[in-house]
C-alpha cells in the first residue's frame, strides 16, 4: 500500500526582522554635522588667511621692531613692491612670528570644534540606550570636558617638540644654519602648529605607557600619519590639512632657487605662505 505524503503548511513567523548592519550617514562611524562643519571650516579658512595676509601688516605687529636682533630684507634697485607687499617682506622674522601668533589662536579654536565633534561621535551610540547608558554618557562627556586644559597643555608641549624636529629637517633640507636661525625657528613652529597641534589636542599625544589606552593611541597615530589611513570624517579633517601643509611647504621652497631677486623670495616667506593657504583648503574634503 502506497503512503501518500501530505505537506503541512508552515505558519508564518511573526518575529520581527533582525536589524542588519548597514552603515548610514548618521551612524557613529560616519558622524559629521555637515552644516556646522561647513560654516566652521569657512571661518577657519578666512581666519588663517587673515593671520597670513593682514595680521603682520597691522600696527600692533610693529612692536616686534623694538628688538634689534631681527634681520630685515635689504632692498635692491629692482625692488618696487606694493606697500602691502613691502610691509610683509621687509621683516620676514616679524611676519612669520605674527603668523604663528595668529595660528595658535585659530588652531585652538578649530581643534576645540573637532574635539567636540569627536566626543559626540564616540558617545552617539549611547544616546538611545537605557537610563544607565545615558548616565554613563553624561559622565564621560563631563570627564572629557574637565580634561580640556590638560589636553591644551599636552598639545602645546607636543607642538614644541615637533617644531624642534621640523627645525632639524629644515636644516637637513638646506635651510641656513648660522645666518637665519630665528627665521627657521619661526617656520618650524608655524609648521608644527598647522600639523601637530590639532591632532595632539583632539587625539591626545602618543604615550609610551604600557596600558591598553596608550597602545590604542599609538596605533591610531601610526594608522593616521604613517599609513595615511583615516576612517572617519573627523580623522580626515585632521590628516588632510596636515598633509597639505607639508606638501605646500615643500612646493613653496621652489621659488627660493629662482634668480629673480624679489623681496618676497626672502627666507622663509615662500615656505611659510604656501602651507598657510594649502592647509585650510584640505579641510574641505572630510567626507
TrEMBL record:
> Does Nucleotidyltransferase count among this protein's keywords?
no
Residue ranges annotated as transmembrane are: 31-55, 95-114, 149-173, 185-203
Q: How does it sit in the membrane?
A: Multi-pass membrane protein
State the compartments where it is located: Endoplasmic reticulum membrane
Give the pathway: Glycolipid biosynthesis; glycosylphosphatidylinositol-anchor biosynthesis
Keyword Transmembrane on this protein?
Answer: yes
* Gene Ontology annotations for the cellular component aspect, listed alphabetically: endoplasmic reticulum membrane
Keywords per UniProt: Endoplasmic reticulum, GPI-anchor biosynthesis, Membrane, Transmembrane, Transmembrane helix
- Pfam families found in the cross-reference section: PIG-F
GO biological process per UniProt: GPI anchor biosynthetic process
InterPro entries recorded: GPI_biosynthesis_protein_Pig-F
Q: Please give the residue ranges the record annotates as the region Disordered.
A: 1-24
Give the primary localization class.
endoplasmic reticulum
Q: What is the name of this protein?
A: Uncharacterized protein
